[in-house]
Amino acid sequence: MAAATLTEAEQLEVTRVCAQTSLLLLQHGAESALVESVSRRLGLALGVDAVEIALMANGITLATLCGDRSRTAVRRNQDRGINMHVVTEVQRTLLLAEAGRLDLAGVSRQLGAIKPVRYNRWLVSFMIGLSCACFARLALVSRGIQDDYGTPLLTFVASAVAMHLRQWLATFQFNPLINFAAAAFVATSIAAQGVLHRWVANPKFAMSACVLLFVPGFPLINAVSDMVKGFINTGISRGFIALLLLLASCAGILLAMTIWNTWTWL
Q1: Per-residue confidence of the chain (266 residues) as pLDDT tens digits?
Q2: Closest CA to 81 of 111, 125, 113, 118
């Protein structure tokens, strides 16, 4: 589709589609450079001369240029949680448009059909519990403790229950800071019982490993990546969000340790 043949209505639709693309990517955890690149390439594939985009932590401003016409769209960003399936499907749609296999209507239709794919809650809780238990086991082995299997088991229970609680609270649209603090409190409280009742030989490893699921690795990586690539505002914003999540987790851990008086493990 050549830019000269685009009508004003078609340019408005291209602007809307590009804005929707940017929003989908930003809402589901894509780095800022990818959001900007995909939106620009999609606009060019659909026939406009240029796409200019400004990204912010809580919104986007996107303009398309077609001849002497300029159309602008502003969208508010609301975090929908990290979901690489959505990011991948948006990129696949872009590639189909660049290959000429999707026109403007097809792109709009395909973007509207993208739905986040989520794993079963119980499966996620089990795998998170297993990963934290493996960290506990590695910590034990690194200290020369080979025959302690109770500590990884306690770690598994604490982290799996905490993860399930975190997912359950998310269904009520609670603030993520509350989710992290409450789940960290529960994880630490369960692991603290190993200290109080001497259920396991090395409860301090369970106390430290059961809260590893609260490390916001993806936001921190995105924050650094954004700042390195010149997106300072979004990078700083994502970095502070990750820091707040860490502080909320620490608050839950400290509250649990205070209530159960398990500071002695330190």
Answers
A1: 444 578 899 999 999 999 999 999 999 989 999 999 999 999 999 999 999 999 988 899 999 999 889 999 999 988 888 899 999 999 999 999 999 999 999 999 999 999 998 899 999 999 999 999 999 999 999 999 988 999 999 999 999 999 999 999 998 988 899 999 999 999 999 999 988 888 898 888 999 999 999 999 888 999 999 999 999 989 999 999 999 999 999 999 999 999 998 885 55
A2: 118
Q: What is the pTM of this model?
A: 0.87
Q: Which string of DSSP letters, residue by residue, matches the chain?
A: --GGG--HHHHHHHHHHHHHHHHHHHHTT--HHHHHHHHHHHHHHTT-SEEEEEEETTEEEEEEEETTEEEEEEEE-------HHHHHHHHHHHHHHHTTS--HHHHHHHHHT-------HHHHHHHHHHHHHHHHHHHHHHTT--S--HHHHHHHHHHHHHHHHHHHHHTTT--HHHHHHHHHHHHHHHHHHHHHH--SS-HHHHHHHTTGGG--HHHHHHHHHHHHTT-HHHHHHHHHHHHHHHHHHHHHHHHHHHHHT-GGG-
